[in-house]
Design a protein that fits this description.
By secondary structure, this protein is of the alpha/beta class. The chain has helices at residues 54-61, 101-111, 116-129, 145-157, 175-191, 206-212, 243-256, 260-268, 285-296, 306-313, 317-329, 344-351, 354-368, 370-381, 390-397, 402-418; strands spanning 9-21, 27-39, 42-47, 69-74, 77-78, 86-89, 163-167, 198-202, 215-220, 225-231, 303-305, 333-336, 339-342, 386-388, 423-425, 430-432. Bound molecules: adenosine-5'-diphosphate and magnesium ion (MG).
């Protein structure tokens, strides 16, 4: 029989929006129309590009920042600030280095005015639950990364939360440590030894999301909202090599690797080309060429299942997704339904010598990246073929915050230099036309 509480909603978000003020004083929407329910008994994973607002959403749920618009409810009540039942685990361990494990874990209880004896008892219990018994007196620097993150989790568990929010809590750890800790968390979840009723996990790792969650939500960027929901009805623990799990991983990959044009088509019904507001993916040319070569050669011979390519490359989704996006943007690969194929241009590129590769790269850049086109065109208008970078930064800041604008311009500069579309002087911050012309 299904538990009668199964449909009780723990967290309920309706039309939630959040904006931040950018450097030039305008507001930029980070979250818009976010609708989301976390039900009792559920693990939900949240995936999305970096900068899509996942951490902002978690901070709203943790009551650390208010939403600008919409309703945020916890057990049916509007959430106005930190709620007792909601605790958060962060990616960076953020432990106080001068406090012992026990003292770090007790800290939140102290703030709640809980008496010393009870604090000690509850902290010990939480420390034991997460497998750190015997380390109560240790200082953070005496612990490995994995153990430090266990302290981070104990610090959340000690509050006896019924909802735990985890913001990429495993991603700062090496793969094996992350996996072990994730499995321990799932065991703890199933054990019923904690009052946890709902778990919301932000992840960068597609396999992790599929292995953990009852539902995977994929966030769109600019502004962030729930774009797709993929229910997962398999029993835990799940076998990562089983057909069902592989198929789900493929499905999530397919959703995560949609091109900007495909995404626009889903949103508006019409394919639109990449615009100035497009945030160029954080991919280096060497990574792009490395992956392209791997794809072109045996055993893939131009065609791969994305999860398999990731495994062969030994890289994380966080590292690979921007590289896929870059390769597809320049039409060197096609990506669909969780598969990646070398395009005919991609094969040509693979076989080309360095000079021809640069030519192709530059030509594709001008064709598909409006920012590169605008830089090149502007330089051609100048008598001396030179311009400061600032006007381009200001232009990008119409669409994104300062730091992101710098990152995007930097990518455009690196790619443009490689494709010999323009030059850049790191001392003066001047962009200029290549000298050979
Ligand atoms: P994610 O966790 O999905 O990577 P974040 O929620 O951290 O995304 O950030 C979403 C966007 O909001 C980013 O562009 C980020 O720079 C911006 N942002 C987050 N917090 C602030 C803030 N306090 N002030 C201004 N901008 C912010
Ligand atoms: Mg984040």
């Amino acid at each position: 029989m299904a538990s009668p509480k199964k449909n009780t909603s723990l967290i309920d978000l309706k039309d939630v929006g959040k904006s931040f003020r950018t450097a030039d004083g305008t507001n930029r929407a980070v979250l818009e129309d976010v609708d989301f329910v976390l039900k009792e008994g559920e693990i939900v994973a949240l995936l999305g590009k970096s900068g899509s607002g996942k951490s902002t959403l978690l901070r709203i749920l943790a009551g650390l920042i208010p939403a600008d618009r919409g309703h945020v409810r916890y057990r049916g009540q509007p959430l106005y600030g930190p709620a007792r039942g909601i605790a958060m685990v962060f990616q960076s361990f953020a432990l106080f280095p001068w406090l012992t494990v026990q003292q770090n874990v007790e800290l939140g209880l102290e703030a709640q005015g809980i008496a010393k004896a009870e604090r000690a008892e509850r902290a010990e219990a939480a420390i034991e639950l997460i497998g750190l018994a015997g380390f109560e007196g240790a200082l953070p620097r005496e612990l490995s990364g994995g153990m430090r993150q266990r302290v981070g989790i104990a610090r959340a568990l000690v509050m006896n939360p019924d909802i735990l929010l985890m913001d990429e809590a495993f991603s700062a750890l090496d793969v094996l440590t992350g996996e072990t800790l994730r499995n321990d968390m799932l065991e703890l979840w199933d054990s019923g030894k904690t009052p946890m009723k709902g778990l919301l996990v932000v992840s960068h790792n597609i396999e992790e999301a599929v292995l953990m969650a009852d539902r995977v939500l994929i966030f769109s960027s600019d502004p962030g909202r729930v774009r797709v929901e993929i229910p997962i009805r398999l029993q835990r623990p799940r076998n990562p090599d089983s057909m069902e799990v592989r198929a789900l991983i493929d499905e999530v990959y397919a959703q995560m690797t949609l091109s900007p044009a495909e995404l626009a088509a889903i949103e508006t019904g019409a394919e639109v080309p990449v615009a100035m507001s497009y945030r160029l993916p954080d991919a280096e040319v060497s990574q792009m060429e490395g992956l392209l070569e791997m794809l072109a050669e045996a055993p893939f011979d131009g065609h791969a299942d994305l999860p398999q390519l990731a495994e062969e490359a030994g890289l994380s989704d966080e590292e690979l997704l921007p590289v896929y996006e870059a390769l597809r943007l320049l039409e060197l690969v096609h990506i669909a339904q969780g598969d990646i194929n070398l395009s005919s241009l991609g094969r040509h590129y693979y076989q080309a010598d360095q000079a021809l590769r640069r030519d192709i790269f530059g030509q594709q850049l001008l064709l598909h990246v409006p920012l590169a086109g605008e830089i090149r065109h502007s330089l051609e208008q100048e008598d001396d073929g030179e311009l400061r970078e600032e006007p381009f930064l200001r232009r990008l800041e119409e669409f994104m915050e300062e730091e992101e604008a710098e990152r995007v311009l930097n990518v455009a500069i690196e790619w443009g230099r490689y494709g010999e579309v323009y030059e850049y002087d790191y001392h003066t911050g001047m962009l200029k036309l290549p000298e050979t012309e």
